[in-house]
Amino acid sequence: QVQTLLMAALLAGKVKHNQAQGDWKLFAGQVQTLLMVADAGVAATYCGEFIQPILLELVRLCKMHAASATSIPLLVAGIRSVCPDKTRLTVLHSHLVHMCLLARNFKPAIEFMDTPITELLVDEEEKFPARSYLLYFYYGGLIYCALKSFKRAAFFFEAVLVCPATAVSAIMVEAYKHYVLVSMLLNGKQLSRPQYCSSFMLRSLQDECPAYNDLLRVYKEGEVDGLQELVRINQRTFEKDETLGLVKQVVESFYRRNILRLTKVFVCVSLADVARRVGLEDAATAEKHLLELMLAGELTGTIDRSTGMVHFYEDHLQYDSAEFAQKLESKIQEAAKAKALLANMDAAIESDGHYIRRKHDVKHASTLPSVGQSDLPPVSNMSKEEDDLIDT
Asked: What is the DSSP string of 133-152?
C-alpha cells in the first residue's frame, strides 16, 4: 500500500509540474508499472487525487502523438483498480470509449458498456462532470452503431437526451441526429419521445436538425424518389456530420421495409414486379435484397430463378425448440437480475441521509397551514426566511 501511494504521488507530481510530456513513452511505462503493483483499496481511495489525473494526462499525451491504442490497456487497468465491479461510471470511462473509437478497437470498451451502470463515482463535493457522462453514452452509441447493434445504440443515445439540462449542448444535438437515424433503422419511424426528455428540449433539438427531420418525414411517406432526392440535397450536411454511412443504411432499410410490406399482400410475385413496386433498379437487385432478408431471418420464402418468381411463406417459428427455450430462460434470468438490482437500489435510496432529510422537509412543508393571498404581508416587509418558506 505504501509503495502504491508513493509511486502515485510521484507521478501525480510529475503531471502537476508538466514533466510528463518530455518523454511520454517513459511516462506511459511508469504508469503501467504503477497499475501493475497498485493496491485496489489505495487506488479507489486516492482515485480523484492521484490515479485519475495521471491517466487523464496519459490520454492527452496519447492523443497528441496519435497513439490511442497505447492508452487503452492502461485505462482498462485503471478503471478495474478503481471499480472492480464495473457498475460504477467514472470520468475515465468516457476517455476509454473515445480511445477505442479512435483506434477502431471496440472490444475493451464493450466489456464495460455491456455492464449496467448503477452508480456514479463522484468527487469530494459529490459531483460528477456532466460532460463525461454525455460523452460516455454518445461515444458508446457510436460504437454500437459501428457494430450494427442498433437497439443498444438507441439506448445510449437516449441516455444522452434524457440528461437533465436547461439548454441543449452540442453533444446532445449530435446524439439526437444519430437517435433519429437509428430509430428509422429499428422501426421505420422515430421512436417515442424519451420519457424524461422535456418537450421544450425536444423542440430545441428538432430546430437544430432540420435535415434529419425532413429525412424522417419523407421516410414515413414512403416515396423512394423523394427520399433519394432529399439525401442528394443534404449530402454535404450528412458528410459534415459524419452520418452519411448511417443515412445510406437508412435508404437500404427503406427498400427492405417496402419488400416486407409486399409479403402482407402477395403470396407469389415476380422479381421484376418486386423491383418496380419497391423502386429498385432491376430484378437482380430485388433478388439480392430478398436473399439478405431471408438470411437475416426477417423473411421466409423461396426464389425460383427459372420463372423469376418469389414465393412468400408464413413464419414457422418453433416455440418448442431447445434454442427458443434457452433464449427464454436467458431472458427470465435477466429480468430476475434487474428486479434484484432495482430492489437493492430502492433500499439504498430509502436509507440515504440526503433522501431522508429531503423527505422529512417535504412532509414538514405539507403540514404547514395554507395561507391566503390576502393574509400575506407586503413583499417589502417579508423576511428572507418567510420568502423561502412561501417558495417551498
From this structure: HHHHHHHHHHHHHHTT-HHH
Q: Give the pLDDT band (50/70/90) at residue 342.
A: confident
- The CA distances from residue 141 to 109, 117, 152, in Å, are 11, 15, 7
| Average pLDDT, integer, range 99-111 | 92
Determine whether 267 is exposed, middle or buried from the number of CB atoms within 10 Å of its CB (0-12, 13-18, 19+).
exposed
- Cβ atoms of residues 156 and 163 within 8 Å: no
- Residue 163's nearest CA partner among 124, 129, 125 is 129
312, 302 Cβ separation under 8 angstroms: no
pLDDT at position 318 = 57
Name the pTM for this structure: 0.77
Decide the pairing of beta strands 301-304 and 309-312: antiparallel
Instruction: Answer whether 12's CB lies under 8 Å from 53's CB.
Output: yes
**Mean pLDDT of the region 181-207:** 80
pLDDT in tens, 234-258: 999 999 999 999 999 998 888 888 8
Pairing of strands 309-312, 268-270: antiparallel
- Total residue count of the chain as it appears in this document: 392
The pLDDT, as a whole number, for residue 43 is 55
Give every strand in the sheet of 301-304, ordered side by side.
268-270, 309-312, 301-304
**C-alpha–C-alpha distance, residues 135 and 157, integer Å:** 10
For residue 346, the Cα-to-chain-centroid distance in whole angstroms is 24
Q: Are 20 and 14 in contact (CB under 8 A)?
A: yes
Exposure class string for 90-106: b at 16+ Cβ within 10 A, else e? bbbbbbbbbbbbbbeeb
Name the CA dihedral angle for 200, 201, 207, 209, rounded to a multiple of 10 degrees. -160
